[in-house]
C-alpha cells in the first residue's frame, strides 16, 4: 500500500473522531474537532501531492480519496443539521450530488474505467471545507448566535451552489457512460 493511500485511510479513520468531538457541546471539544477537521482536510492535499509527485496514483486512490472527502464533509453537515445550522434542503442537494457521482463512478468501474475527480469537484470540496471550518469557528460562544447561524447558512448555501455546478459538470462530462451501458443492455 502506498503512502498516499495510507493517508487517505487515515483521513477516513479521523471522520468518527472529528464527529464525536463536534457533537460534544464544549468549547474545548469543538476546538479539538476543528483541529482534527483541518488535519484531515490538509491530508487531502498532502496525499494528492504525494500520489502525483512520487507516481503513487492508483485506482484505489482515485476511488477512495473522493470518498474520504465525502465522508468527512457529510459528517460535519449531519452535525450542523442536528444543531439547526444547516438547511435540510442543502444537505439533500449535497447528498444527491454525492450519490449521483458515486453511482456514475460505479458504472464506470463496471466498464473497467476509473474517473478521477474534476477541477470543479475539487473546488466544490474546498468550498465545503472552508464553509465547515468557518461554521465550527462560529459555533464558539463569542459569536452572537443569530449572526453565527445566518453566516453559517450563507456559507453552506454558497458551497451548495458549487456542489450543484460540479454535479452538473460531472453528469455532462460522463454522460457517455449511460449511453455505453444502454447499448450493452440492448444488444
Automatic annotation (TrEMBL):
A Gene Ontology molecular function term of the record: CDP-diacylglycerol-glycerol-3-phosphate 3-phosphatidyltransferase activity
CC annotations in GO: membrane
EC supergroup of this enzyme: transferase
The protein's Enzyme Commission number: 2.7.8.5
Keywords: Lipid biosynthesis, Lipid metabolism, Membrane, Phospholipid biosynthesis, Phospholipid metabolism, Transferase, Transmembrane, Transmembrane helix
Catalytic activity: a CDP-1,2-diacyl-sn-glycerol + sn-glycerol 3-phosphate = a 1,2-diacyl-sn-glycero-3-phospho-(1'-sn-glycero-3'-phosphate) + CMP + H(+)
Protein name, per record: CDP-diacylglycerol--glycerol-3-phosphate 3-phosphatidyltransferase
Amino acid at each position: 500500500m502506498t503512502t498516499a493511500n495510507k493517508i487517505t485511510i487515515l483521513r477516513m479513520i479521523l471522520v468518527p473522531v472529528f464527529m464525536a468531538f463536534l457533537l460534544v457541546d464544549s468549547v474545548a471539544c469543538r476546538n479539538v474537532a476543528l483541529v482534527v477537521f483541518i488535519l484531515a482536510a490538509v491530508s487531502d492535499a498532502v496525499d494528492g501531492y504525494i500520489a502525483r509527485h512520487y507516481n503513487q496514483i492508483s485506482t484505489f486512490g482515485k476511488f477512495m480519496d473522493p470518498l474520504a472527502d465525502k465522508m468527512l464533509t457529510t459528517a460535519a453537515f449531519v452535525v450542523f443539521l442536528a444543531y439547526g445550522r444547516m438547511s435540510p434542503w442543502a444537505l439533500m442537494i449535497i447528498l444527491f450530488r454525492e450519490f449521483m457521482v458515486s453511482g456514475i463512478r460505479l458504472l464506470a468501474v463496471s466498464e473497467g474505467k476509473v474517473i478521477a475527480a474534476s477541477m470543479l469537484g475539487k473546488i466544490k470540496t474546498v468550498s465545503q471545507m472552508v464553509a465547515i471550518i468557518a461554521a465550527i469557528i462560529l459555533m464558539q460562544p463569542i459569536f452572537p448566535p443569530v449572526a453565527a447561524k445566518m453566516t453559517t447558512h450563507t456559507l453552506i448555501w454558497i458551497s451548495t451552489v458549487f456542489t450543484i455546478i460540479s454535479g452538473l459538470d460531472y453528469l455532462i462530462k460522463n454522460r457517455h457512460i449511460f449511453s455505453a451501458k444502454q447499448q450493452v443492455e440492448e444488444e
